[in-house]
Amino acid sequence: MSANLNNGILRTLNRTPQQSSSSSSMNESGSSVIDTIRKRMQQMKDELAKSQDELHAYQIEREREKHAREQAEGEIGGLQRRTQLVEEDLERTEERLTQATQKLEEASKAADESERGRKGLEQRTYQDDERIATLEQQLAEAQLIAEDSDRKYDEVARKLKVREGELERLDDRAQRFEEKTLELEEELKVVGNNMKSLEVSEQEAIQREESYEEQIRDLTTRLKEAEQRADLAERTMAKLQKEVDRLEGNITIIK
């Protein structure tokens, strides 16, 4: 572009005064267009730098989300281990109940024999009956606790599976946002390269300027959409963290 301007100056020096006056007017108009284009190029460069800063900030935020997700996965693992401990406690309780049932049957047989043999053992038999009733009540309560624990474990497992699916979708959205940002950056580079090669008349420059403004509006719209997606991802992550905290509280209550 500088070489063309120099050639135009040489041609201007070789023209007649009338031609020089007309050419000077055209050169001034062309210089105004070039200045406008240069200003637009500078604006595009500034927007590119801003997009790069936002991309960097997003990448930092994505690392934080990744760390939070890993932490949540660790907490989920702890939750599963605690659930396993609860199941083991239930198994031990069932074993104790089985032993108690066997002892109950033995006590019942002994009570029958004592009832036929000696009247003096009636009081002892009565006490055995009370002990049997207590054991039966404890057995029923233990069975209810075991059933309730099974239901709660199934519910926790289902919710954990749902949260894992939400985390995967969140990661996919973040990946698409990063890809869109890279596309915007490439488009800005293409626009910058196209503007460097501009050498057109005033009318063509005006038309291209309108096209660039349309591209800028489109890029701005895309950037806003990307920011909205990032906000949505952040809100979703906050909801997931609350749900994990609530589930951990439920497991603590079960213990």
UniProtKB/TrEMBL annotation:
Compositional bias ranges of the Low complexity kind: 20-32
Ranges of Polar residues composition bias in the record: 1-19
Regions of compositional bias (Basic and acidic residues) in chain numbering: 55-72, 93-129
Pfam family, one: Tropomyosin
Assigned keywords, A-Z: Coiled coil, Repeat
InterPro entries: Tropomyosin
TM stretches of this protein: none
Residue numbers spanned by region Disordered: 1-34, 55-129
Domain of life: Eukaryota
Function statement: Tropomyosin, in association with the troponin complex, plays a central role in the calcium dependent regulation of muscle contraction.
Family: Belongs to the tropomyosin family.
Protein name as catalogued: Tropomyosin
Source species: Rotaria sordida
Upper classification of the organism: Eukaryota, Metazoa, Spiralia, Gnathifera, Rotifera
